[in-house]
Write a structure and sequence with these properties.
Oligomer: single chain
Radius of gyration: 20 Å
Low-confidence stretches: none
Strand order of the largest sheet: 1-2
Largest sheet: 2 strands, antiparallel
Strand content: 5-15%
CATH architecture: Roll
Shape: globular
Length: about 70
């Protein structure tokens, strides 16, 4: 019975390499915003015209890194 109970208790999740990369990217973004460094902010995003961003405020959609950077 004890073996059954320990089998049912979930293991503590260990951060994955992907999770660590995402957290590093989040920290990079926060530091760039706090520094008001537009170049550093844009390094977090795709650098080409495949970037597609939706926002709450108009114009609501930006197609491409250039359009998003201009805003």
């Amino acid at each position: 019975m004890i073996a059954m109970i320990t089998w049912m208790v979930p293991a503590v999740a260990q951060p994955t390499d992907d999770e660590a990369k995402i957290r590093a990217l989040e920290n990079q973004f926060v530091a760039a915003v706090n520094a008001k460094d537009l170049d550093a902010i844009m390094k977090v995003y795709m650098p080409d015209e495949t970037l597609l961003v939706f926002d709450v405020v108009p114009p609501r959609q930006y197609v491409g890194a250039k359009a998003y950077r201009e805003d």
